[in-house]
Amino acid sequence: MQIDPSSSADLSVQIAQAIKDAIISGELIVDERLPSEAELSDHFQVSRPTVREALKRLAAQSLIRTQRGASGGAFVNRLSFEDAYAQQVTTSTLLLSMNAVSFDTACEARYALERACAPLSAVRRSADHLATMRAEIFRQGQPGLTDVAFCASDVAFHRALVDGAGNPVLSYQLAGAVEAMQPLMNMITFTARDRAVITGLHTRIADSIEAGDGGAAVTGLQDLEDETRNLARNVFAARAKR
Amino acid sequence: MQIDPSSSADLSVQIAQAIKDAIISGELIVDERLPSEAELSDHFQVSRPTVREALKRLAAQSLIRTQRGASGGAFVNRLSFEDAYAQQVTTSTLLLSMNAVSFDTACEARYALERACAPLSAVRRSADHLATMRAEIFRQGQPGLTDVAFCASDVAFHRALVDGAGNPVLSYQLAGAVEAMQPLMNMITFTARDRAVITGLHTRIADSIEAGDGGAAVTGLQDLEDETRNLARNVFAARAKR
DNA sequence: AGGCTTTAAATGTCAGACTTTTAAATGTCA
DNA sequence: TGACATTTAAAAGTCTGACATTTAAAGCCT
């Protein structure tokens, strides 16, 4: 672990990078304890606050965790799927909101990715995944449900569909695409008729998954995408006229 | 922007969260300048180093950027697709390496997602994307290419395929899946025959994309996935026997 | 042996000073 | 008047040294 004294970059950036490289290269392994802040400041010939800033940068990325007290310190963190999932959702949400990504673009991406999961989910889904899908469909039919709650249930339904594929990497990758859409979806107001159509498509998809028919699930998702985009188009058109 | 004095969490974590919330909620908008470190430390009633640690946490997530000098300070950063892309690749790479994700799992996820892009790419790809794919195929046929270079070219080929879909959200989401596979792919040694088979499949896929035949591209990708997984299985089996 | 107390190591926080960078204000000269 | 050089001040970056808090382990007592 070395830094380049001739570099013009901030010291805390350089130190963070050096430690990060050490982790990626395997020089530091999971759960290994890093040298104490005092030792690091000595090693890199910088002050402790500078080292601390570097460590905070890494902590923000869940690359390390810190523990206080005797035999405490900074430890290389095993990046869990949950951590990665959370980061993915935050990043995707900000990306969509800050770059004025159109509803169509986000929607297209989301459904394209979901269709990739459907065939796997049709073969592998557990009874539990299917039960979750059915339960969310039931909830979506309840009267008095707010639009926000309807969207949340929609996300839960699709989450179960994706998780049914039994591939944690896929689930993680899809997290952003599905959850980041929620703020966009929340801009839509659903009439009772809209909800009935969507719930009907959800039922069709769930039936296909239950029957192990991936192809049918894919076409169901395609129809759902068309329906969703139509809905959004109408809502936005009506809003623009007003 | 307020913090809870009764909370037991580290102050720098609380402050970072408060600012992050302000950004997500839109209270702070893109390119807006945050108060100076001195003002923030005054506002939150903490010392400047503590404020700085909070800011470094946010900078590590590309939520803010800092500028030195007069009229400098911390500014809300527009999270670009490039930033998000880079974060995505790092996270995915670490996730795969730290959690001992099997080659099969990662490979399945990657190709499932790529197949989702193929139909869109067949319709929308520009001449430029197609040219890149052809160029990478040519490179892959060059004798004397190292395995690492071959893998890098493979990634570039698939990157062009994905980008051809013309959906930046999709490209961003796929970045992790495709690039994070590279370290795993690098563990494989490719015989001349292996390379010929892969390059042949690449050609088939490029032809399908050029012809606008998404279905053929999907089956091409399916065959490529099968081929890749076979290859990996053999390599790992041979290695285990040794 | 078991539980309590002490201790020391480590992170968390603070205060204040100094350095470096940078843009804007100011001044100077043609 | 305008272009260029100089000064100035604001802000982040860095350093030093100190104190507070947490926590595990060592030591002690019963």
Supply the CATH architecture of the largest domain in chain A: Up-down Bundle
For this structure, what is the CATH class of the largest domain in chain A? Mainly Alpha
Derived from helix and strand composition plus strand pairing, the structural class of chain A reads mainly alpha
Largest sheet of chain A: 2 strands, antiparallel
Helix content estimate of chain A: over 70%
The span between the termini of chain A is 61 Å
Counting structural domains of chain A, the number is: 2
Mean pLDDT across the residues of chain A is: 92
Layout of strands and helices, then pairs:
The structure is a homodimer of 242-residue chains.
Chain A: H1 11-25, H2 37-44, H3 48-60, E1 64-67, E2 73-76, H4 81-98, H5 103-124, H6 127-141, H7 147-163, H8 168-179, H9 182-185, H10 192-211, H11 214-241
Antiparallel strand pairs in A: 1-2
Chain A binds a DNA duplex (30 and 30 nucleotides) through residues 10-12, 36-38, 46-50, 52-53, 66-74.
